Amino acid sequence: MVHRSFCLLIQKLEEESNPNDVMNEVSRTHQAIRSLDKSVSSLEMELAVERAKRNGGLGAAVPSKGLPKVFVVVGINTAFSSKKRRDSLRDTWVPRGDKLRQLEKEKGVVVRFVIGHSATPGGALDRAIDVEEAETRDFMRLDHVEGYHELSSKTRIYFAAAVATWDAAFYVKVDDDVHVNLGMLTNRLARYRTTPRVYVGCMKSGPVLSQKGVKYHEPESWKFGDEGNKYFRHATGQIYAISRDLASYISINQPILHRFANEDVSLGAWLIGLEVEHVDDRSLCCATPPDCEWKKQAGNVCAASFDWSCSGICKSVDRMRAIHSACGEGDGAVSNFAAA
């Protein structure tokens, strides 16, 4: 009905107005329709949450009332052994102390290192994080047992915990060996603020590896068809973002979301059958210098940079500062972002 009215409006404007007026009115109406679609999507998700609550729920409830309202939550996936990586980010693109709190309060940009607990809660590994957290106050602790083969579970739990803690337009997952320009990232995401059910990242379709013993082996390769087939399109795992309605969907349906061997494939599988807009944003997968440096000099600052050969920045602890110096957007970039 909305789209039929839209067509009638265009026909009427063509009859009564000059071409410039028609295009201006069409643009305004198109934006209004996108905003309406976003509102309807949000209402549908709230109804789903209420149904889940009444029926005992399939997963964690997703309350939005009373939560801090922000623009984006950036969750940096990290491990117990990665303190040097975390410090390399704190020395470059992750603000420390009051600056971190100011970024959250004034710009609605939340940045946290995301980690679970060890197999023996309260042990030496957990206590080390307790000490670090007391000093930095930049962690998000999950009810999750850390482990390389548990990344799909961790991703699922992260989105559920994040959407239950902050009412954000977007939720980002990024690895702790990736360089990010927060100002560019927020501005790229702001383009899709009114788009319902949006999934932003560098979309790829790699081979399904059925051979045992190789990196990224997929034990359930048979589900993807004949040997030699490729995965469906999904965002590469170094960094991606999803809108609030998709994070809520993941939270509600946690127990029945199947986990494949690779975390990025798992997320793609959860979303592939939904009405989701896949945004292939190559600014989120620039290479390290000279690539991101040349792009910066040309006025195309990258949102994220890493080395494909290492699935992150090779030797990131040693190189992060130099990459930030060459490809960083500058301290004022996030300050210029309008969160509203």
Task: Describe, in plain words, how this protein is organized in 3D.
This protein is of the alpha/beta class and 340 residues long. It has 2 domains: 2-54; 69-200 and 236-271 and 281-336, Spore Coat Polysaccharide Biosynthesis Protein SpsA, Chain A, CATH 3.90.550. The chain has helices at 2-16, 19-54, 83-90, 97-107, 124-136, 151-165, 182-190, 244-252, 263-272, 291-297, 316-327, and strands at 69-77, 109-117, 139-145, 167-175, 179-180, 198-204, 234-243, 277-280, 304-305. It has a 7-stranded mixed beta sheet, sandwiched between helices. A two-stranded antiparallel sheet has the order 5-9. β2 (109-117), α5 and β3 form a beta-alpha-beta unit. The relative contact order is 0.14. Its cofactor is Mn(2+). Pathway: Protein modification; protein glycosylation. Keywords: Glycosyltransferase, Golgi apparatus, Manganese, Membrane, Signal-anchor, Transferase, Transmembrane, Transmembrane helix. This is Hexosyltransferase.
Rg result: 21 Å
Which term fits the overall shape?
Answer: globular
Mean pLDDT, nearest integer?
A: 86
The CATH architecture of the largest domain can be named as: Alpha-Beta Complex
Order of strands across the main sheet: 3-2-1-4-7-6-8
Structure summary, number of beta strands: 9
N- and C-termini, Cα separation = 30 Å
Name the poorly predicted regions.
51-61
Strand proportion, as a percent range, falls in 15-25%
CATH class of the largest domain: Alpha Beta
Instruction: Work out the helix count.
Output: 11
Structural class: alpha/beta
Pathway: Protein modification; protein glycosylation
GO cellular component, one term: Golgi membrane
Keywords: Glycosyltransferase, Golgi apparatus, Manganese, Membrane, Signal-anchor, Transferase, Transmembrane, Transmembrane helix
Subcellular location: Golgi apparatus membrane
